[in-house]
Amino acid sequence: MAERIEVIGVGPDGRLATELPGDVSLVAGGARHLERFAPPGVATCVIGGDLDQVAGALDAAVGTAVVLASGDPGWFGIVRRLGRDLGADRLRVHPAPSSVAGAFAAIGLPWEDATVVSAHGRAPGAAIAAALVAPKVAVLTAPDRSPAWLAHTLLAAGCGPRTVVVASRLGHDDAVVQRTDLAGAVDLEVADPNVVLVLDEARLARIGAATVRGHGPVGLPWARDADAFEHRDGQVSKPEVRALALARLGAGPGRLLWDVGCGSGSVAVEAAGLGAGVIAVDRDADQVARTRANADRFGVGVGVVHGPAPAVLADLPDPDAVFVGGGGPDLAAVLDLVLARTRDRVVVALATLERAGPVLARFDAAGWDAGGELVQVQDLRPLADGHRLVPRNPVLLICGGRRP
Ligand SMILES: C[S@@+](CC[C@H](N)C(=O)[O-])C[C@H]1O[C@@H](n2cnc3c(N)ncnc32)[C@H](O)[C@@H]1O
Prior knowledge:
Cobalt-precorrin-4 Transmethylase, domain 1; Methyltransferase, Cobalt-precorrin-4 Transmethylase, Domain 2; Rossmann fold; 3 domains; 7-stranded mixed sheet; 5-stranded parallel sheet; 13 helices; 19 strands; binds S-adenosylmethionine
């Protein structure tokens, strides 16, 4: 049994974080790392698809084994798996700078304010959400989650202008750093491995250095008054309804939301302020423009797509949660699509009671649990030498969760 497993990072400058120990009996690593760094005559094990086999070989090695891994092996890397399978106390980890540090260094940008997200071997929603909402994002890619895939998905999601930097094969002789925009990245030829930076330069210039969070100014208020948003004919969700909807949707970092029938975009803007990636959809071009203006006003990134639901939803990435604020006559068809594609939560705001029964029936038929909540707010207003309560129009929220 290997007593010690030295996990050694290979930095974006191509250097090892530390020398290999003289008594190494087995070196595991990617083919390209083994080729360069495995000492002649020492047994090797290629880290490819089957990590069980690698863990087995490391476990069975004599004395000291070495694992070579890119960047910081404890940062979206192999340390999690090795610790689980072989025990953290057998590992000695030697981190090199991450590929993300290398990519930011290559373009001379600081990155303590960056959001870093992996699309490598994980569901892609969090990477898409981060790139939509945060102004400075690094995405660890994979062959099936390439820079072109990311750029294509962000364009389909109505993402605003972004600078895209793709750093490939850092530390190798054929390392390349390319700078383009979303449209340019769709056709970019890139070798693996690579890391992608997605930068909203206009927003970064406004935010300055004040934030350490990746997704915008810290401590934004939410449940703002309806009049804080540019809106038309009162088509803006009221603060208390919005607050409850955002809570039920679980709006927060790592979540990808759709706001269908976004109107003024107040739900989308506040969900983004809480860190969620949001795609706001409306069939009315003026409302789409209003949503963009409101996102801009509050300094948050929101994807905005113009077109009628459900048709326009077909090309969007699957959401974790959806707010349906305006389904109009197509509400049933919108719901059918939404319930089929959403991961866990759907909230529907209804102005008329008659729709509640059919909407609940649709949730049930699709295998979702749902219930209704009437949000009834009364404002305290001065009257003579006292106060009275003035009721606002109640709104019925139908909130559903996918059955486990
Ligand atoms: C499993 S993660 C490992 C991350 C690593 N622990 C780090 O600190 O960079 C694999 C991803 O890291 C990125 N990566 C690793 N090595 C790279 C390199 N030499 N050049 C560019 N990106 C690299 C790619 O996005 C790749 O898909």
